[in-house]
Design a protein that fits this description.
Layout (H helix, E strand, L loop, with lengths): L6 H29 L21 E2 L10 E2 H11 L13 H18 L3 H26 L5 H9 L9 H15 L5 H6 L8 H34 L11 H13 L4 H43 L2 H15 L8 H12 L2 H31 L5 H24 L5 E2 L2 E2 L2 H15 L1 H12 L4 H8 L13 H4 L8 H4 L5
Parallel strand pairs: 1-2
Antiparallel strand pairs: 3-4
Helix pairs in contact: 1-3, 1-10, 1-11, 1-12, 1-13, 1-16, 2-9, 3-10, 3-11, 4-8, 4-10, 5-8, 6-14, 8-9, 10-11, 12-15, 13-14, 13-15, 16-17
Amino acid sequence: MLSDKQGVGLATVVMSVLFSTYYNVLMSWALFYFFNSFDSTLSWTSCNNTWNMVENCSSGIPGNVSHLQSASQQFFENKLLDKTSRIQEAGGIRLELLGYLFIAWLIVYLCIFKGIRSTGKVVYFTAIFPYFILFALLINNVQLPGARDGILYFVTPVWSKLFEVTVWVNAAAQVFNSIGIAFGSQISMASYNKFNNDIVRDSLIVAITNSLTSILAGFVIFSAIGYMAHIHNLPMDKITTDGPGLVFVVYPEVLATMPFHQVWAPLFFFMLLCLGLDSQFGTVEVGVTFIKDAFGAKILRFLKREELLALTICIICFLLGIPYITQGGIYIFQLMDHYTAVVSLVFLALFEVVSVCWIFGVRNLSNMVKKMRGSTPNFYFRFCWLILSPLLVLVILISSIIQYTPVRYGSYMYPKWAEFVGWLISMASMIWLPLGAVHELYINKGSFLQRLRAATRTTVDMASAAPDAEKLNMDNLTSESLLAAGVKI
């Protein structure tokens, strides 16, 4: 049986911890913008500040003039990041960002230190409040000149793009990150449900809500981008960008040109903080849940209370996040994000699907769901589990490898040694899969084929197992115990 310290389960935990160390840096950036958005004149709209390089600063988006930067871009790079020119130059720690990073982790701790009871209550606000802001921004944006062009740009299909593999890989990566697939956070949170909770209903609600929210956010963003294209007389594709540039460069520029920006700017960055904290709660909870389940008795001898365990994890992640807020931290951040959230994430997702659907088996999985909700999953779900999901994830993984491009930040190309470090970062989570497999083959007896059969044998037969939740030990599924229920990797 897969233990909490082996294979897919441990790989997922490592992935979540790596993600937690740098994701909260985004929250420190959001706090930085939040506290700088109360001025009557927003700091990122002017080229007359000490951090500006006046000779190549533009008060608007520069468009095709390659040597110019927008004032918003210079605020992000020179004021917020105060970045160096390359990854080899770490520079000093940005003390202001260090304070905001501390505040971000303090907020995370205060929201999770009581476990799921406190997290669940906080999420009622952090998950619902952004919808009020999104709708308010949408109502405001659609009244702006050029908003219609931006919305049409968003909803008009470009059919030729459907034949580009990169589009599908990027779409899959977006869904993986927005829903939290393969991070372990969904399984960790779901482990606190009652045994007979309707998991199919909840899965549909999460997937549909995520898609509708993404569409709503698209209307909000592209209506604003249409307005920016109108006032700067630029094509739409010269305004759009991806990565942190959209949120921390383009949208602040948009907010500055809107009526009542003193209201919209703070609300927008507060919304970002709420959205980011929701994701951070889930990933940190994976680590907390794993340690409680795997080492709870031993750890609590020293820490005495579970609150101290959560505090310890938050402190460790805070300390590991300090390199990202140095002057060269943006290069480390980009490196981590590139190698943690794409290839290794899809790789883990593939083995999670194979472990649960092929080794644990669709029959056992269907019987588990039947015992939970009283009815067997329909043919569509069983087909997705057995064929469609593994096939799609495999295609995405292969495509992402074929379409691999080296990490870069803007026009800056990373040195080869940095790419090597990036692959080591990816291996930090992926390595547990072969290590777990070797360990299982080693501890079993017999010939290689006998060891292989024993390692992949399902040890729980849900069809004959007693339906009592306590007998099945299913009333408190942990972030890894679903995989551990009958899977050997």
